[in-house]
Design brief:
Helix content of chain B: over 70%
Strand content of chain A: under 5%
Strand order of the largest sheet of chain A: 1-2
Largest sheet of chain B: none
Largest sheet of chain A: 2 strands, antiparallel
Order of helices and strands of chain B: HHHHHHHHHHHHHHHHHHHH
Number of helices of chain B: 20
Number of strands of chain B: 0
Structural class of chain A: mainly alpha
Strand content of chain B: under 5%
Largest interface: A-B, 68 and 77 residues
Number of strands of chain A: 2
Radius of gyration of chain B: 22 Å
Order of helices and strands of chain A: HHHHHEEHHH
Oligomer: heterodimer
Distance between the termini of chain B: 46 Å
Helix content of chain A: over 70%
Number of helices of chain A: 8
């Protein structure tokens, strides 16, 4: 499997990049729809479905789709203080332990949210926007998809990197917070 | 094993997992899920795990966070800070330490469209530190002033920390924003006091007179700053007049920031796309922790550990000042090692019930916690604002040097904290 996973790294990287862009598109759509709703309110009207689309789709897109890339780039928030003073071999062990825990957690989340999505599909869940019934069940599938892919990213990290962190350090947290710093 | 024993074991396991660099979100979710499985049964624990991620993230109130983050990223990329610094220089050039004062003033202004401590420090540091050094300022103090000034970004609305606190404490985000303005301005005033004191006592660090620095005419700098001032007016006017909700203010502000950036040709399409992607990345990293914190809250409540900790604190018969001292110590220590929002989400399940038992005003408590968390941004060993400034200034000074330069501003922060505790009305009077 470890031979297969490195070859898949390019594909996984493209998928995680693509999903993070889709997450950004979700954020942009929410921004535009809410802005349009506020603007139309000035004329006594409103943009239909703003609340349902924002909560039932856009928020899920921007919360979960970029998670794959956040994990792939080791930008999950963690506490480094103790880790940094550990001897190198121990560092590798604790990294693997943390990754195994992460793998288990993401798999559990993928399984659990998939079950939830299937049950919402069965009941054809929807939300009312005025008199319009907007289906919300498709949005539930964003969660298991992202948790499953994130689990795949962690599995790859365990098998390929074997306890080595990607070349990142504290300053990367800063980069993550700032984006492309001018 | 009793529920409380399971809960306490869970907290210990959480601390161990965090110490071995397990991501905060994973540690919170793992401990809560396993704890709930032992406490209740497998089906009940799965039911919570299945539903919390969706229930938490499909929230209208929460959508204010990405909207304001987006506005902050776009404002940051539009380089709206330079004009604010020029306005401040024109206004304060007659004062001793005027460049450092202008930096703090401009940080406060940029905070109104940004909401992030790090982005405020980075945006301002790039412009004001070179000018201060050229004007004869000690490099450490110049860097310290901007690193500290950046922390105002998380106090003045729109503050991401205050929005997330408001969601967890189920309290009005607008009231938190109002409280944040008071403490943000008080912090700026205390920083200016520290600068004036240094200029008076240590002219070798902060020169009393300005040399080698161009001061633009006030009218010209105001014209240059007009777009960012309009943006501030739109957000604050809409929010506090009740025209917008927080989410709507964020969305309108983000669209306005793009429009201003495009009209002034300071932002490209690529910048906008990058801002959107960064917004998603930041939200993903934060919200997964918040999902874990929501699960931990349920675990502590169901196990009875929350009530146990409350009775324990009650048993100590702590007075108001003793309780405050304990809270300050916990946040200052955690803030030294943790990201502020991670620290906030980790501690709220325990501290919010304590604040309720002691009848502390939830708005005041939220602003106090935000202030304490922001102090962690400039304290060693992991002061993120200091790291940002270090990254900007190259070989001008060392990390240790910047931490030294921050010390006078930490003293000013201490004054702010003492005032907040002694006179809670500073925060609550505006509600």
């Amino acid at each position: 499997m470890s031979n297969v996973l490195p070859r898949s790294s390019g594909a996984l990287s493209r998928v995680s990049n693509g999903l993070s862009v889709l997450g950004g598109i979700g954020a942009g759509l929410a921004m535009l729809m809410i802005f349009a709703d506020v603007a139309l309110r000035l004329f006594g009207s409103q943009f239909p479905g703003t609340y349902v689309a924002t909560t039932g789709y856009f928020m899920l897109m921007l919360t979960f789709l970029p998670l794959v890339k956040v994990q792939a780039e080791d930008k999950m928030i963690s506490v480094d203080a103790m880790y940094l003073v550990l001897p190198h071999p121990v560092q590798r062990v604790v990294v693997i332990v943390a990754q195994i825990l992460s793998l288990g957690t993401y798999l559990a989340l993928a399984y659990g949210t998939l079950k939830d999505a299937i049950s919402k599909t069965a009941s054809r869940s929807y939300a009312l926007s005025g008199t319009l019934a907007v289906p919300t069940w498709p949005g539930y599938y964003i969660l298991p998809l992202c948790f499953g892919l994130t689990a795949l990213v962690v599995a790859r990290a365990i098998l390929v990197h074997r306890g080595q962190l990607p070349k990142s350090n504290g300053t990367d947290i800063v980069e993550a917070s700032l984006g492309d710093r001018p | 094993m009793s529920g409380i024993a399971i809960g306490i074991s869970g907290i210990i396991a959480l601390v161990v997992l965090l110490a071995i660099r397990t991501p905060v979100a994973i540690a919170l979710i793992t401990v809560s899920f396993l704890g709930l499985t032992i406490l209740l049964d497998t089906n009940a624990a799965w039911s919570i795990l299945n539903t919390v991620p969706y229930e938490f993230s499909a929230s209208w109130t929460l959508s204010a966070v990405p909207m304001f983050l987006m506005m902050g990223y776009i404002s940051f990329k539009s380089k709206m800070t330079g004009s604010l610094f020029d306005v401040a220089k024109s206004l304060f050039s007659w004062m001793p330490g005027s460049l450092a004062i202008s930096s703090v003033f401009a940080c406060t202004g940029f905070a109104s469209v940004c909401g992030s401590s790090i982005a405020t420090a980075a945006a301002m540091g790039r412009i004001s530190i070179p000018e201060m050094v050229r004007g004869g300022y000690n490099a450490n103090i110049a860097c310290g002033a901007v690193a500290a000034g950046g922390t105002i970004g998380a106090l003045i609305p729109p503050s991401i920390i205050l929005i997330i606190y408001g969601i967890f404490a189920q309290t009005s985000v607008l009231d938190l924003f109002v409280g944040g303005i008071g403490v943000g301005l008080l912090t700026a005033a205390c920083y200016i006091g520290a600068i004036l004191a240094m200029a008076a006592l240590r002219p070798d660090l902060i020169p009393r007179r300005l040399e080698k620095v161009d001061i633009p005419p006030l009218g010209a700098s105001l014209r240059e700053a007009a777009p960012v001032l309009i943006l501030i007016l739109i957000i604050f006017g809409g929010l506090f007049s009740g025209v917008f909700t927080a989410t709507e203010a964020g969305a309108v502000g983000a669209v306005a920031a793009i429009a201003i950036g495009a009209a002034t040709r300071k932002i490209t399409f690529r910048d906008v796309v990058e801002s959107l992607v960064e917004t998603g990345m930041t939200c993903a990293g934060l919200f997964i922790i918040a999902i874990g914190a929501t699960m931990l809250t349920r675990f502590l409540a169901i196990s009875g550990t929350g009530s146990f900790i409350l009775s324990l604190v009650d048993g100590f018969q702590l007075g108001y000042w003793e309780l405050m001292l304990a809270i300050i110590l916990v946040y200052l220590v955690l803030g030294m090692f943790m990201d502020p929002i991670g620290c906030l989400l980790l501690t709220l399940p325990i501290f919010l019930p304590i604040a309720k038992v002691y009848d502390l005003d939830s708005i005041w408590f939220g602003v106090l916690v935000a202030k304490l968390l922001e102090i962690g941004m400039i304290t060693p060993p992991f002061g993120l604002n200091v790291f940002v400034i270090r990254g900007l200034v190259g070989r001008l000074t060392s990390l240790t040097g910047i931490f030294k330069g921050v010390v006078p501003f930490l003293a000013a922060d201490l004054v702010v904290i003492l005032l907040m505790i002694a006179v809670p009305g500073i925060v609550t009077i505006w509600q």
